[in-house]
Design brief:
Layout: E1 15-16, E2 28-31, E3 38-42, E4 51-53, H1 55-66
Antiparallel strand pairs: 1-2, 2-3, 3-4
Length: about 70
């Protein structure tokens, strides 16, 4: 897996969170507006830091979380 250079900015309207987390205050938001990079941020601090993943790495993280491997 190669390291991806994070973009300086994702589109503002590209952030979304799961509808299942609407009632929760501890959520993350995902942005796929930049080709080949998935952005992840804390919904409580939208101006804060963003984690940037290649799509395959992001899928691996989601699979690991779903299987309680993380």
């Amino acid at each position: 897996m190669s390291a991806a250079k994070p973009p300086t900015q994702f589109t503002a309207d590209g952030w979304f969170k799961s509808s299942a987390s609407a009632a929760q205050n501890e959520c993350v938001e995902i942005n796929t507006s930049t080709p080949a990079i998935v952005g992840v941020r804390d919904s409580k601090t939208p101006g804060g830091p963003v984690l940037a993943f290649e799509p395959a790495a992001f899928s691996a993280v989601i699979e690991a979380l779903a299987s309680d491997a993380l």
